[in-house]
Structures are given as structure tokens and as C-alpha cells.
């Protein structure tokens, strides 16, 4: 298959479910969706993190109400937690869920990193590399952890001077917790292919990704997972279905970043929609949000999602099967849609 690992005998596309808002207090709807996805054979459920709910608490809640489905963070922002703190979160959840955690990580953008977490954003690639190195050392539990880098230092070099290298007290049930990198820039994706177990792309077109990310795809290992976040809207009215996806694309390309720095806008531009992305941002930042959303191209939205009738979606699944993507991270809260995809990709 085009884009799949050379020599692969048989390929079965995995399915996962991305949960958005938790719903009413108590999380009943979230638990119901997770249990339905588990019963349908979905491989994982992903919990997001921006500047609202954290990504671990919903997964702990879901993990207590399920038994098989993997629990993924999408995306745990590395500026929100030191590597040590994240390792304790990850090892604890992995321990309690009997080894079901997939830790999806990412750097976010400067508005969130500096405005919300109060951390510096520059040199995100180098920061990510150091973060991963420390995290891996902690989870492997081979020795007390020390690190002297440009972004992290353990022990802390100032303060009382009493800090010393420490080793995780809890013995993890796995000495290697899968790390997936949420990334859009080619260099960041290549970093994930080099150091991580998987990649979580968003707004990705199966028709274009081999051109945009050919270098990263060339260095990925045979077991490297690509869990692509894909909105799915089953509706015989294609225009109405596409309009739902345009809301999200317009917001991210137009408003999730500054005029001079928006990784989502750059990502869309690299896939061949530079002029359209520029127009979306100009309209959005000038206060014309409805016009910005309307300016999102139908072709773009159609390529990065699965929209339309069941027959149309069934046909368009072929492009995803032929791409390097190994897991469809379905964006839908409709159980009938989840069941339809499970039947098609069984």
C-alpha cells in the first residue's frame, strides 16, 4: 500500500476516539462513549488539553470504567509539567490501568506556553528533545536521574544546594511508556519519528502528507504509529457536513496564534493552501469570524475529514488506508458513526 512500511504483509487500520468537552458534571456521556468505543473494538481513547480541563483526570475516570481500551493524552503540553511531574502522572495512570497509557505530548504555541503556563517558548525542538530524554530515564528507573542541559537541569543548580539525583519510588509496570508527539512542522515531525513511538497529526491530508513529510516518513521505524485526528460527519448533505468541520479549521488557522506566528496556519499553507490560510487569518483577526470560517476551502476540509453519506465516506476511506496513517482518531460523539466505522474497518 502506498505510504505503508515496505514489506508489510497485511494492514488493519486501527480506530480510536477523541473526546472533546466532558459534558455535564459527572462525566456520564464521556464514560458512555468510552464504553461504546471499547465494545466496538476501538484501540484507544484520547483526552485533549488546551487551557481548560487537564488531560489526565478524564483518562483516570475513563480507565476506572473500562478494562481494555488504551488511554491516550492528546496532547499533554510539556510546558505544563516538568519531566519529573509528567513521569509521575504517566507511571501512576499506567499502573492503575494495567499498562494502557499512551502519552501524547506537544509544545503548543507561544500564546499558551508563555501566556498561560508562564514558561519560555523559544527553541521548542531542543526543549522537547531534553524533556523526552529525562522522561525516558525516569520511567526506565535504571539509576538516579541527573541532567545538565540548556532547558532542564536536575538537580537544580541554585537554591539551597541540597538537591540530589533521585530515582522514582514507584516501580512502573512498564519500563517504556509509549510516547507520541503532536507535531505539525516537518522538523518537529522528524523529531517524533526519531525519538517517539508515534505521531499525532491534525488537519492532515492523506493525499499530501507524503510530499510534505517525506523526510520524516523515511526515518520512521516499522512499528511507528500515526494516529491522525479526523473529524467524521455522516450526513447526506455534504455542504452541511463540511460546514461543521470548517468551524474548527477557521478557529485554529485564524485565531490560535499571533499574526506573525501561527503553527496551524503554517501547517495548512505547507499543504498547498497558503493564500487561503492568509485570507482566513486576516478575516478572523479583523473580527470577521463568520467570513473567516466561510473562507475555509471545501477541498481542504474534505481532504482532512470524512464527510458526507456513508457510501461517500466508505469510498474516501481508501485514501487513508493507502497513506502512512495507522490509526484514525475519530472526532465524533455519535455512536452510530462509531459503529459504522468499526464495521467498515473491522
What number is the mean pLDDT? 94
- The amount of beta strand, in percent, is 5-15%
Number of DSSP strand runs: 12
* Proportion of helical residues: 40-55%
* Low-pLDDT segments: 5-9
The string of secondary-structure elements, in order, is EHEHEEHEHHEEEHEHHEHHHHEHEH
Distance between the termini: 18 Å
Tell the overall outline.
Answer: globular
Radius of gyration: 20 Å
Q: Number of helical segments?
A: 14
**SSE class:** alpha/beta
Going across the major beta sheet, what is the strand order? 1-2-3-5-8-9-10-12
Largest sheet geometry:
8 strands, parallel, barrel
Write the layout of secondary structure elements.
Layout: E1 14-19, H1 28-39, E2 44-47, H2 56-64, E3 70-73, E4 76-77, H3 83-96, E5 101-106, H4 110-115, H5 124-140, E6 147-148, E7 153-154, E8 179-182, H6 186-195, E9 198-200, H7 209-212, H8 214-219, E10 225-234, H9 238-255, H10 263-285, H11 289-294, H12 298-303, E11 306-308, H13 310-322, E12 327-331, H14 335-344
Parallel strand pairs: 1-2, 1-12, 2-3, 3-5, 4-5, 5-8, 8-9, 9-10, 10-11, 10-12
Antiparallel strand pairs: 6-7
Amino acid at each position: 500500500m502506498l505510504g505503508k512500511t515496505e514489506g508489510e504483509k497485511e494492514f488493519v487500520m486501527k480506530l480510536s476516539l477523541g473526546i472533546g468537552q466532558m459534558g455535564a458534571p459527572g462525566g456520564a456521556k464521556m464514560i458512555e462513549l468510552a464504553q461504546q468505543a471499547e465494545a466496538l473494538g476501538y484501540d484507544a481513547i484520547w483526552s485533549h488539553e488546551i487551557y481548560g480541563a487537564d488531560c489526565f483526570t478524564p483518562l483516570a475516570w475513563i480507565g476506572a470504567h473500562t478494562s481494555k481500551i488504551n488511554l491516550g493524552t492528546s496532547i499533554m503540553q510539556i510546558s505544563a509539567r516538568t519531566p519529573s511531574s509528567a513521569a509521575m502522572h504517566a507511571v501512576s495512570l499506567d499502573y492503575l490501568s494495567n499498562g494502557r497509557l499512551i502519552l501524547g505530548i506537544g509544545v503548543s504555541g507561544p500564546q499558551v506556553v508563555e501566556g498561560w503556563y508562564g514558561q519560555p517558548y523559544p527553541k521548542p525542538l531542543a526543549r522537547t528533545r531534553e524533556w523526552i530524554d529525562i522522561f525516558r530515564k525516569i520511567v526506565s528507573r535504571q539509576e538516579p536521574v541527573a541532567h545538565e542541559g540548556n532547558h532542564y537541569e536536575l538537580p537544580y543548580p541554585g537554591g539551597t544546594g541540597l538537591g540530589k539525583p533521585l530515582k522514582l519510588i514507584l516501580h512502573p509496570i512498564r519500563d517504556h511508556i509509549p510516547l507520541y508527539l503532536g507535531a505539525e512542522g516537518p522538523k518537529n515531525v522528524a523529531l517524533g519519528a526519531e525519538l517517539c513511538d508515534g505521531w499525532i497529526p491534525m488537519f492532515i491530508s492523506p493525499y499530501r502528507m507524503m510530499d510534505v513529510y517525506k523526510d520524516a516518513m523515511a526515518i520512521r521505524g516499522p512499528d511507528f504509529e500515526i494516529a491522525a485526528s479526523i473529524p467524521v460527519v455522516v450526513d447526506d448533505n455534504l455542504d452541511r457536513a463540511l460546514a461543521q468541520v470548517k468551524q474548527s479549521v477557521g478557529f485554529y488557522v485564524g485565531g490560535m496564534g499571533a499574526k506573525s506566528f501561527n503553527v496551524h496556519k503554517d501547517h495548512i499553507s505547507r499543504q498547498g493552501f497558503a493564500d487561503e490560510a492568509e485570507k482566513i487569518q486576516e478575516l478572523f483577526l479583523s473580527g470577521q469570524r463568520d467570513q473567516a470560517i466561510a473562507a475555509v476551502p471545501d477541498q481542504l476540509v474534505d481532504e482532512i475529514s470524512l464527510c458526507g453519506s456513508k457510501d461517500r465516506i466508505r469510498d474516501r476511506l481508501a485514501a487513508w488506508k493507502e497513506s502512512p496513517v495507522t490509526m484514525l482518531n475519530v472526532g465524533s460523539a455519535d455512536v452510530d458513526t462509531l459503529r459504522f466505522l468499526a464495521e467498515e474497518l473491522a
